[in-house]
Amino acid sequence: MSVVAGQRTAYVNARLLDPASGLDESGAVLIEGNKILEAGPGLFPEGPADDVRVVDCGGYCLAPGLIDMRVHLPEPGGEHKESFETASAAAAAGGITSMICLPDTDPPIDNIAMIEFIARRARETNIVKIYAYGTITRGLEGSELSEFGILSQAGAVAFTNADRAVADALVMRRALAYAATFDLLIVQHPEEPRLAQNGQMNEGEMSTRLGLAGIPAIAEVIMIERDLRLVEMTGARYHAGHVTTGAAIEVIRAAKARGLPVTCGTAPHYFTLNDTAPMDYRTFAKVSPPLRGEADRLAVIEGVRDGTIDVIASDHRPQDQDSKRLPFVQAEPGIVGLETLLPLTLALHRNEGIGLLDLLRRMTSAPGELLRMKEGRLVAGLPADLVVFDPDRPWTVDAAALQSKSKNTPFDEFAVQGMTMCTIVGGRHVHSLID
Amino acid sequence: MHILGMEGVPREEIEILLDLSESYIEQSRQDDKKSSILRGRTLINVFFENSTRTRTSFELAGKRLGADVINMSVSASAIKKGETLIDTAMTLNAMHPDVLTVRHGDSGAVQLLSEKVTCSVINAGDGSHEHPTQALLDALTIRRRKQSLEGLVVAICGDILHSRVARSNIYLLNTMGAHVRLVAPKTLLPAAIEKFGVEVHHKMIDGIRNADIIMMLRLQTERMQGSYVPSTREYFRFFGLDRDKLAVAKPDALIMHPGPMNRGIEIDSELADDIHRSVIHEQVEMGVAVRMACLDLVTRNLSRNTGENAQ
Fold this sequence. Notes:
The structure holds two protein chains of two kinds. Chain A is of the alpha/beta class. Helix content of chain A is 29%, strand content 23%. Chain A contains 14 helices and 18 strands. In chain A, the strands form four sheets. In chain A, strands 1, 2, 3, 4, 5, 16, 17 and 18 form an eight-stranded mixed β-sheet that branches. Chain A has a five-stranded parallel β-sheet with strand order 9-10-13-14-15. In chain A, strands 6-7-8 form a three-stranded parallel β-sheet. Chain A is globular and about 65 Å long. Chain B is α/β, with parallel strands linked by helices. Chain B is built from eleven helices and nine strands. Chain B has helices spanning 11-29, 53-64, 85-93, 109-114, 132-146, 164-175, 204-208, 232-239, 243-246, 269-272, 280-310, and strands at residues 42-47, 68-73, 99-104, 120-126, 153-157, 179-183, 199-201, 213-216, 254-256. In chain B, helix 1 packs across helix 5 (132-146) and helix 1 packs across helix 11. Chain B is globular, with a radius of gyration of 19 Å. Classes of the chains: A alpha/beta, B alpha/beta.
C-alpha cells in the first residue's frame, strides 16, 4: 500500500499498547499520510468517516513499531551476508520499523561519506527506517576519536565500536568526556579484551568439556566497573550494548541507584539460551559476548523484570555458511535475530510473567528516548510507525524461510508464540497478513 | 562407526577394545607382523597438525593388518591454498577410503569432519578436546601391569588446561573405576574441572601421595598464548617429577608419559629412563596394538555392510 498525502487510515478493533503512556486498552489509531492523527479508546463512536480507509486489526495488539538498536548490517563489505534489502525485509517481517546499524562495516562508519552512504541506501531501499552509529574511534582502532560532532550532525544517532571494546582507559575517558560535551550516547561492548582473548565460548564446565578456550563471565563486569568510574567522572551518557551476566547487571543496578546516566541492553538469545547450546560444537550458538551459564541467563531475565535492563535488541549478525560451517574456533560469531526478536521476547511475558508493556517499552520508547528519536510512541503528530501483532499465535521458526540472506540461527525448528500481522512504516504497510 | 572420544563410552565397550588390543600385542612381536584382516581396505592418516609418533603408530597398525595406508599432511598443502576442512573431507571421501584417522589443531574439527564423510573416522587428537586412542593405550598399559584399573589412584600431572590426553584419560579412568587426581598450578587447570569427578591438587606431593600411577603431561608451549608459568626451571622445581617427590607415591608406582617428553621440564631425565618405574616405551608399544584393535573394530561394521550389499 502506498501513501497518498492526506489519505486517512483507521486501524480499528485493536488492543492498543503504548509503553510510553502506559496505555493498554481496546481502541483505534487514525493516521493521515505518514503521521499519527489520533490514537486511543473510543475514537470513532459513530464509526470512521466515509473517506477513511479502515483496517480491521481483528483484536490483535497494536503498538509503536519496534526500534532495534543493535543490528549488524554488513553492507558495505559483507553484501554476501546481508544487504539493505534483505535486512529490511527481515525487519519488516519481524515488526521492526527502525533499525540502528552498527558501524563495523568495511570500511567502518567513521566519516560523513559513510553516514551519507547509509542514508542513501536506506532511502533507495525504502522499506523500514535505517539509522547508523558512528565509531567511537577512527577505523575502530581504539586510539583516535572519531568526529562526534560532525558525524552526529550528519545523522549518526550514537557512537560505538560495535563488538570491540574501547579497551584503553584514557581513550575511553576522552570519548566519554567529549561525547558529554555534545550530550551524545556512548555504547560500549562490555568485555575486557585481554581476558576474552582467543575465547570461543563462556568459560565453565562446557568449555572445559569441549576443549575450547573460555571467556570468563567477569570479563564483562570488569569493563563495566571501570567504565562506570569514568562515567561518574565525565557525566557522559553510557549504554552497555549487551549485558549477559548477573554480576554486570548487579553493578549497573547499583549505578542507577546512585543516579549515574547509565543504561544497558541485552538480546533474546541471552535470556533464551545458555552455554549448553554450543554442545556438539554448534557454531550457530557462537556469539559475542558468549552465551552464559544458567544462573546468568536467569539474572538477565530478572534484569529485564526489574528494569535494570532498559533495552532488548536483536543483535542481528548475519553470517553465511562459509563463515559458520567451520571448526568452532574458526567460525564467526553471530545470530540472525530480526525475525525472532518479538516472539522470543514475548516468551518472557508468557513464561516469566513480565508485563507486555514492560517488554514492548524495551523495544520501542526506551531505545527511542536513549537515541533521542521521535519514534517509539503512539502520539498524535509522530510518524505512523506501527506494528500489529498476535501475541499468542504459535509458529515454528524455519531458518530456510527467514527473509535474511543469512540463515544462521540456533532457533531453527524452535516453537515460538507471537506473530507480526502488519508492519507499518510512515503509513505504508511493509509487511501484512491482514489486508 | 567412528571413535571420536572417550566421553560417555561405557565400560563394556572399553573392555572389548582393551581385550581386542591384548590379542594384537603378540602379532607385533613376531617376525612376521602382517595379517590380512584389513586387506583391500584403505586407511588415510590425515594430519592437520604435525605428529610423528601417533601417525607412525597408526601407519604401522594399518599396515600390520594388511591395509593400504596413505599419509596426508594437510597443513602443508590444502589449508595453505585456502581449502576448508569440509572441502578436504569431501575430497578425501570421494576416494573411497575405509578409515580416516584425523588429527586437527581445533577442538571439534574431527567430529565436524566425521559428519561429512561416509567412512569411519578415528580421532587422533583434536585441539584440547580428546585423544581417545592415547587413553586406551594408557589403560592397556596400566591393566597389563596392575591387572585392573578398578580402585587405582592415578595422578595426572601438568598442563591439564591444554591437554586432550588428560580429558580422554579422565573420562576413561572414571568409567573404569579408577580414582583420578589432577596436579597442576591453577594457571594450567581448566574451568570447573572439579565437576569432572576428579580430586584437584596444587601441591605435587599431596597429589601423588600413595598414587599407583603417575601420568606426566608435556608442557604444551605451542598452545600457550602468553605466560602460564614463569619459567621451565620454576615449573620443574614445583611440578616436575623427580626422585624426591616420587618417594611419596606407592613403592611400585608406575610413571607414564604420552610423549614427546621435555626432559628436565616435567620429568627428571634419569627417572624417565628408569626401567623399573617408567613404562613410557611400553606405552608406545601398546599404542600400536590399541590402534590395530580400533581399526579392526571400526571396519567390522563396514565388512558386514559390504557383504550384505554384495549378496
